[in-house]
From TrEMBL:
PANTHER family: NAD(P)H NITROREDUCTASE YDGI-RELATED (PTHR43673), NADH DEHYDROGENASE_NAD(P)H NITROREDUCTASE XCC3605-RELATED (PTHR43673:SF10). The keyword Oxidoreductase applies. Belongs to the nitroreductase family. This is Nitroreductase family protein. CDD domains: TdsD-like.
């Protein structure tokens, strides 16, 4: 059964914003159906086509599907309890890393968070076009990820992602059950625009 984005979660926009932007939201109730390897590859390919400073592409991903029980459990164990309780029902978990230095000269890449965020959003919007939804999480034990993956100092975990198809919220406990059904809100566009100083 495929669950559509419930109406209450769709962004109520004033203008004709792209469908995938209106429909994207961060669910906690995931269907038990797996994602096919090609679907995961498609999401990752979409991510890699994000723009980045000097085309450094500072994003890196660790990916585990639910069927790969040992790897999936390892990633789920990094999550704080408030994320783990629902995210362990996702079809796929990922850790998203950023490379904090430029390959060309070893200097600090101050755009790393920006560029990895762009790649993540590409992945999420591609997902919505395929009825696959994702939830970004920064609530996880980054020190443990660093320790267990033994990565170089310049590769740092930034977020984790829970991905899958939507399910009805009925199996979620509170407060997640209510959150799953509450409208999404944003402050007004005007409040995000800074005026010029007196000229
Ligand atoms: C960097 C980042 C970290 C986040 N961390 C968490 C998290 O640890 N747990 C969680 O439930 N949601 C987390 N979120 C999801 C946000 O709460 C969510 O995107 C925001 O409330 C807007 O809701 P929407 O994505 O449905 O529009 C995170 C989102 C981002 C971008």
């Amino acid at each position: 059964m495929m669950i559509e984005t419930i109406d209450i979660k769709q962004a109520k926009t004033r203008y004709n914003v792209l469908d995938v932007i209106r429909k994207r939201w961060s669910p906690r109730s995931f269907s038990k159906y797996p994602l096919m390897p090609e679907e995961i590859e498609t999401l990752l390919e979409a991510a890699t086509w994000a723009p980045s400073a000097m085309n450094e592409q500072p994003w890196r991903f660790v990916v585990a599907s639910k069927e790969d029980e040992e790897k999936f459990r390892k990633l789920a164990d990094f999550l704080v309890p408030g994320n783990r309780v629902w995210a362990e029902n996702a079809a796929v978990l990922m850790v998203v890393f950023g490379v904090t230095t430029y390959a060309r000269n070893g200097k600090e890449n101050i755009n790393v968070g920006h560029d990895v965020g762009m790649a993540t959003q590409n992945l999420l919007l591609q997902g919505v076009s395929m009825d696959v939804y994702g939830h970004v999480m920064e609530g996880f034990d980054k020190d443990r990820v660093i320790e267990e993956f033994q990565l170089p100092d310049n590769i740092r975990p930034l977020t984790m992602l829970a991905l899958g198809r939507l399910d009805v919220p009925d199996l979620l406990e509170e407060p997640y059950y209510s959150r799953e059904q509450s409208p999404r809100t944003r402050r007004s566009v005007e409040d995000s625009v800074i005026s010029f100083p007196e000229m």
